[in-house]
């Protein structure tokens, strides 16, 4: 991804870095497993 593309993406979508081992990481992981179980076999 180019710098311009990365900057456009960062402006378009809000995000935050989730610390490993945090409760939020577990919630996200569970949600992702429900959406795409084939990735977690």
| Helix content bin | 55-70%
The overall pLDDT, averaged over residues, is: 91
Sheet bearing the most strands, described? none
How many structural domains? 1
| Rounded radius of gyration (Å) | 14 Å
How many β-strands, per DSSP? 0
Uncertain spans: none
SS field, number of helical segments? 2
Compile the SSE list and pairings.
Elements: H1 3-12, H2 23-35
Task: Please give a structural write-up.
It is a single chain. With 41 residues, the protein is mainly α. The chain has one domain. It is extended.
Features:
mainly alpha, single chain, 41 residues, 2 helices
Structure at a glance:
Helix content is 56%, strand content 0%. It is an all-alpha fold and 41 residues long.
């Amino acid at each position: 991804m180019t710098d311009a593309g990365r900057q456009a993406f960062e402006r378009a979508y809000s995000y935050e870095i989730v610390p490993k081992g945090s409760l939020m990481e577990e919630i996200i992981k569970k949600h992702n497993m429900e959406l795409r179980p084939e990735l977690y076999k």
